[in-house]
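User: Here's a chain of 294 residues. Predict its fold as tokens.
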Amino acid sequence: MTDHGRYLLFDKLIFGYLAYIALICLAFGRPLSGFVDDLIVNALLAVGIVAVVHLNRRYDNGILRLLRYVYPALFFLYFYRQTGGLIHLFFPGFLDYHLTTFEKSILGINFTLWIDQNLVNVWLNEIITFCYVLYYPMIPTFLFFLFAKKRYDLIASSLVAICITFFISYSLFFLYPIEGPRYFFADQYSSTLPGFVFRPLVEYIMANSAVHGGCMPSSHVAVALVMLIFCLKYYRRIGILMTPIVFGLALGTFYGRFHYVSDVVVGAAIGAIVTALTLKYYRRPENADAAMER
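Assistant: Prediction complete.
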């Protein structure tokens, strides 16, 4: 058996999440017929993981090896879209009113409305939105880079942190459903957010792929921070270059009216804590082999 044909911790986490969502649908999904597609697709994805690992066990093939380490990036997109059907599993509506009331009590303002009245600028908007858009190729680029470097150990350990971060975030989407300021404050904005390239691009992405709901926390910020911390630790120069991009991405989440400040703070906290615990876990000698040390 090759190292690439072993089940790694991130595989097991994905198996666990697939089972968790299936159980949630079976226990709370009503009518159950509305969740049959989720149950079937989740079962097929589990079979797919088994097939990929089994093929890597039998054949030492570069394409199969690449698929073995980048398949989670495809799954994360599906998992995100799947949350759209789970948003109102426990709450019939959204809870933005409670969150915005809390934020105003702390900050004294609703930050997104303050930006609308004081800080809308086409060039600033394009720069910040450019950073925000860079999130979309960030995960596959990160994984492809480590794969090209043959750092299978770092792929395995970083995917553990990314999986846990995503799965916590996706669970909170339906445990605390927030639709975000672009919906909640839609009738209170006095201006649009102008842009030449990146604002129209992100609006197109949002119109065609975003879930109406999944705002708390900002999984964009959470997962981007995971990758930033790994890069700063193992590829410092790249991490330094990434830092202003991730900072701009975080600004873009609430400047672009996609998230509240609270979403960003909670997302950053989840990403930082999960990454710290993951790195601590893999520093232990008895766990080093689980990350496939070179």
